[in-house]
C-alpha cells in the first residue's frame, strides 16, 4: 500500500495495487502545470482511493484527458485519459519511498530548451 497527498494535505490518497514504472513527461502541458517535467506512475483506477478530497479539482486541458489538482495549494496530482481505466499519479505526491525508478522520457520533442536529458533512459518523441 502506498500513501500520498498534496502539499497542504487536503487531498490524500492510497494505492493498493501495482504501480507501473514511472516516466517523465516533457510535454508543454505537464511542464506548465508542474513547473518542469512531470514524473508519474500509473495504476488501474480501482487501485486508487482518494481518502480526502476536500479541495480536489479537475481541469480539462484537452478533449482527451483531465488533470487532478488541489484547489488549495495547487499541487498537480493526477492525469487521466477519458478512454482508459488507468490513472497517472505524481511521483512527488507519495509520502513514502515507492521502490520505483524512472524508466523513460516521453514527449521529449516538446521539452524545454533550458535543460538537457543526460541519462540513458529511452526517449520517445511523443
TrEMBL record:
Keyword terms: Lyase, Metal-binding, Zinc
Domain CENP-V/GFA: 2-116
Stored SUPFAM superfamilies: Mss4-like
Pfam families: GFA (PF04828)
Annotated signal sequence range: none
InterPro entries membership: CENP-V/GFA, Mss4-like_sf
Coiled-coil region: none
Family to which this protein belongs: Belongs to the Gfa family.
Protein's name in the database: GFA family protein
Organism: Ruegeria spongiae
Amino acid at each position: 500500500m502506498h500513501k500520498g497527498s498534496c502539499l497542504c494535505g487536503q487531498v490524500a490518497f492510497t494505492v493498493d495495487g501495482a504501480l507501473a514504472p514511472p516516466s517523465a513527461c516533457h510535454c508543454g502541458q505537464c511542464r506548465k502545470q508542474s513547473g518542469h517535467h512531470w514524473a508519474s506512475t500509473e495504476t488501474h483506477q480501482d487501485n486508487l482511493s482518494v481518502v480526502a478530497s476536500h479541495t480536489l479539482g479537475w481541469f480539462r486541458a484537452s478533449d482527451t484527458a483531465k488533470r487532478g489538482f488541489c484547489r488549495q495549494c495547487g499541487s498537480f496530482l493526477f492525469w487521466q485519459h477519458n478512454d482508459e481505466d488507468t490513472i497517472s499519479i505524481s511521483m512527488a505526491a507519495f509520502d513514502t519511498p515507492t521502490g520505483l525508478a524512472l524508466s523513460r522520457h516521453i514527449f521529449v520533442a516538446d521539452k524545454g530548451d533550458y535543460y538537457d536529458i543526460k541519462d540513458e533512459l529511452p526517449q520517445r518523441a511523443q
